[in-house]
């Protein structure tokens, strides 16, 4: 194993005596007048041999010495020994920041990457890019960028913005689709990993259209986007309700030999469902079984929600039964979805069926589900049970919240029971639940 240590020659003589055993030490011939500068290459080192008794007893001292030495970038030596001591990102940055000569800094940057104890990060690479940019060394910047690609070091927003500055490009990531040619001419050639990362970066920054254009360019260059990239594009397009483009991407990924997974199919079902294209969503659902990619609980939840929103309650109930028959235990989310949707349609009987199943599956009602129950009881004009629900909640240690009170007040006002609504208003204030503007507007609308 290898270790980079930064120290002075005088410090070396004092500290290393008794600090290392059976190690070969390579010491550079450094100019003492050039403080803060690191050697230009590892090939200039001379060899020496040190010895010590009781290596293990001094292990802690050795680690402390190495850590201290790395924080003092006056000189450098490289120790080849049996023990690995990890060099931190901050220590590498500390050395780089102490330098003024970009050539020596770049030499140090590349040289230490050869040691297993030194791992460059996005931060160290970005610092090197900015250092080179300040000194107008675009060609070397392109080499560092290629180094990041080969070492699979994440390129972030700062990476690209630094490159943009070097190429005098304004407008940030929004200009990405127009500057890729300029980047290539300057030596910044993106590989598949970089394209995938850039597409994700554009999506996270809200530039869905630009991300799609970069995707097109990536494919035109013969590079294959990852399944994760396709999924991210589909999610972004789904938020824009662009179901047609989502299906285009599904076909294109399959044409490139990528097989959709459960997550990808579920995204398609969600997008189609929100667009009201229930038949197409069902077709994707059937494909999953046919292609040996069975739907999971999330897939069922998404399709059930779409069916409920489309008013296809019977189909939603059938799908729920199928889900349980296939061994998927409903979670509380899907129960809340079903309770809420059947409440919207005032189907009290089915609501109670799902309520019983929810409790049988071990999910205790909470303030959210109790509030939905109060709402459906109000719609059924069963106010006695609605008030009784408040008592049940308190016995179970669940306090009605503002939304619960507002729900019952609205139900009472719709039924013309103004006195009961006013009494409930007084009650909620007495238990510390303060009415909001919405509460008072509800009364104003009634009058």
Automatic annotation (TrEMBL):
Superkingdom as given in the UniProt entry: Eukaryota
A Pfam short name: PPR_2
Record key words, sorted: Repeat, Signal
PPR repeats: 191-225, 226-260, 261-295, 296-330, 331-365, 366-400, 401-435
Record's signal peptide: 1-18
Coiled coil regions, renumbered to chain: none
Record-linked InterPro entries: PPR/CCM1_RNA-binding (IPR051222), PPR_rpt (IPR002885), TPR-like_helical_dom_sf (IPR011990)
PANTHER family: PENTATRICOPEPTIDE REPEAT DOMAIN CONTAINING PROTEIN-RELATED, TETRATRICOPEPTIDE REPEAT (TPR)-LIKE SUPERFAMILY PROTEIN-RELATED
Protein name: Pentacotripeptide-repeat region of PRORP domain-containing protein
Provenance organism: Cucumis sativus (Cucumber)
């Amino acid at each position: 194993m290898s270790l980079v240590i930064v120290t002075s020659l005088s410090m070396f003589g004092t500290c290393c005596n008794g600090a290392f055993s059976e190690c070969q030490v390579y010491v550079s011939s450094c100019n003492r007048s050039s403080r803060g500068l690191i050697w230009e290459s590892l090939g200039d080192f001379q060899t020496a041999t040190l010895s010590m008794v009781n290596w293990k007893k001094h292990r802690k001292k050795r680690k402390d010495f190495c850590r201290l030495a790395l924080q003092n970038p006056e000189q450098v030596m490289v120790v080849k020994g049996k023990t690995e001591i990890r060099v931190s990102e901050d220590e590498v940055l500390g050395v780089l920041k102490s330098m003024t000569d970009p050539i020596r800094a770049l030499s140090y940057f590349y040289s230490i990457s050869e040691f297993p104890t030194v791992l460059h990060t996005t931060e160290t690479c970005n610092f090197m890019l900015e250092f080179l940019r300040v000194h107008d060394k675009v060609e070397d910047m392109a080499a560092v960028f290629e180094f990041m690609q080969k070492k699979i070091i994440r390129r972030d927003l700062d990476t690209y913005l630094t490159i943009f500055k070097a190429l005098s490009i304004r407008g940030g990531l929004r200009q990405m689709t127009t500057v890729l040619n300029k980047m290539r001419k300057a030596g910044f050639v993106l590989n598949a990993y970089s394209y995938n990362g850039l597409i994700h970066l554009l999506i996270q920054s809200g530039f869905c259209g630009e991300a799609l254009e970069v995707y097109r360019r990536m494919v035109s260059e013969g590079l294959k986007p990852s399944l994760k990239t396709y999924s991210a594009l589909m999610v972004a397009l789904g938020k824009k309700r662009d179901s047609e483009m989502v299906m285009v991407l599904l076909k294109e990924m399959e044409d490139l030999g990528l097989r959709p997974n459960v997550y990808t199919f579920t995204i398609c079902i969600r997008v189609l469902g929100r667009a009201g294209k229930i038949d197409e969503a069902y077709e994707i659902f059937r494909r999953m079984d046919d292609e040996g990619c069975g739907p999971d609980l999330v897939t069922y939840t998404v399709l059930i929600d779409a069916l409920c929103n489309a008013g296809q309650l019977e189909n939603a109930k059938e799908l729920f039964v199928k889900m349980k028959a296939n061994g998927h235990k409903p979670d509380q989310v899907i129960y809340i979805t079903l309770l809420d949707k059947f409440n919207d349609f005032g189907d009290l009987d089915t609501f109670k069926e799902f309520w019983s199943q929810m409790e049988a599956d071990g999910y205790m009602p909470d303030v959210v589900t109790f509030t939905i129950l109060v709402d459906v009881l109000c719609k059924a004009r069963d106010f006695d049970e609605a008030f009784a629900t408040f008592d049940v909640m308190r016995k179970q240690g669940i306090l009605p919240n503002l939304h619960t009170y507002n729900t019952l007040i609205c139900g009472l006002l719709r039924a013309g029971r103004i006195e009961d609504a006013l009494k409930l208003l007084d009650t909620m204030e007495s238990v510390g639940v303060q009415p909001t503007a919405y509460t008072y507007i509800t009364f104003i609308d009634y009058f």
